[in-house]
From TrEMBL:
InterPro entries: SEC_C_motif (IPR004027), YgfB-like (IPR011978), YgfB-like_sf (IPR036255). This is Zinc chelation protein SecC. Gene3D superfamilies: 3.10.450.50.
Length: 274
């Protein structure tokens, strides 16, 4: 019976516990070459936002923004993705991308599945941590060693990862002209932005141990649930609207009888406007 339950969990989880541990270890290794490499929780928020962005963002854009200098990688047709300096070799980069793509596919599947409750097995489940709760469960001596470190609130790092995408692809997250759609965007974004702030409520829960020291407020847990529904709204909003379409302003074009702007000496209607 126990094996059956484990198989059921694997069937609904793209990344196993071993894979998540592998990712944590890989990111730790990347930090030996670059201090600013984020935690997996940040990466997961980043990937969720990539899925929700209005335009599909290719790997050559999002990978260097997440783990490199932000400059889009130049990829020749039919050639593999160039290696970022932070990876020790091509195999390590390929493995990270393999695991990240699994997570991206899972997020898309979860956000596109019709659900009625966040308790549904098919519901979107962000990779978040109750870091404060985990620290409170440590022996007192170990907690003392970390006393001076800033400890993030529940889902705060995840929300910062999400907003990192919003800020760096701002044109894809600009408010649509449709008033109702713009209001939907603003309302959804507000729930996620709220998670980037500290939880200053009265601690009532510990997500790692129900009997453990309280680390998270009920208000924060409720806000997290609202943010998950907001992600569903964002995915639905941009899918319904499709990619942005560049419009040509007629005033920018010469009149049909004006000289063509290409310098040919011909009238526009006989040249580029033909």
């Amino acid at each position: 019976m126990e094996n059956t339950e484990n198989q059921a969990v694997e069937a609904h989880t793209a990344l196993s516990t071993d894979m998540l541990e592998e990712l944590d270890n890989m990111l730790e290794d990347l930090r030996t070459r670059e201090d600013e490499i984020p935690q997996w929780e940040f990466c997961d928020g980043f990937l969720a936002a990539v899925v929700c962005t209005r335009r599909e963002i290719p790997v050559a854009e999002w990978l260097p923004m997440l783990l490199g200098d932000g400059e889009t990688l130049e990829v020749a047709e039919g050639q593999p993705l160039p290696k970022l300096d932070v990876f020790k070799d091509e195999a390590q980069q390929a493995r990270f991308l393999e695991l990240a793509q699994l997570r991206l596919a899972e997020i898309r599947e979860q956000l596109d599945a019709p659900i009625k409750s966040l308790q549904d097995e098919a519901a979107f489940q962000p990779e978040i941590m109750d870091t404060r709760g985990a620290l409170l469960l440590l022996p007192e001596a170990e907690r003392a060693e970390l006393a001076d470190e800033e400890v993030p609130s529940l889902a705060q790092v995840w929300a910062l990862g999400f907003m990192f995408v919003v800020e760096n692809w701002a044109e894809e997250w600009a408010a649509p002209r449709d008033k109702e759609a713009a209001q939907m965007l603003d309302a959804a974004m507000e729930f996620i932005v709220n998670l980037t702030e500290d939880d200053d409520g009265e601690p009532e829960l510990n997500l790692y141990d129900e009997a453990g020291p309280a680390s998270t407020s009920q208000d924060r847990l409720d806000a997290f649930g609202e943010a998950i529904w907001a992600v569903y709204d964002l995915r639905q909003l941009w899918r319904s609207m499709g990619p942005r379409v560049e419009t040509i302003v007629k005033g920018d074009l010469p009149g049909r009888n004006d000289p063509c702007s290409c310098g040919s000496g011909k009238k526009f209607k006989k040249c580029c406007g033909a």
